Amino acid sequence: MKKTYIAFSVFVVAVSILLIIFLATGLWKVFFYPKTEELVEARIITPQTASSHFDTSLTGQVRWDERLNAKISMEEGETIVAILNRERGEGLPEEQFIAYINSGAERRVYIAYVSFDERYRRYRRMWDAPTAATRPETVSIFSQDLIGDRNNCIIVTGMNNRNEHTMTIFRRRYFQRDDQAFDIIAELQIDGSIIIQETGRSLAYQQGIARGQSFNIAAYGHDSSSANILDQIETIYSFDQASQLYEQSSVSRIPGSQIEQRRLRELLSGVPGVFENFINDLWFYVSPQGTIDPNQYLYFDPSGREIIFYGDEAQQVFRWHNSTPTRSGLYIRSQNISIGTLFRFIDIELESLDSIRLRVIEDVRLRITANTTWDGTYRRAGAVVQIETEAPIRPAVNALYDSAWGRVQFNLNGEYAISSGNSITTGRYVFFRVNGNELLELRPDERTETGNNRMIYKVETLGTAALSLSHVRLGTMGIQDLLETPIILTPVN
Question: How far is CA 455 from CA 278, 381, 446, 471, 489, in A?
Answer without folding.
Answer: 16, 14, 12, 8, 16
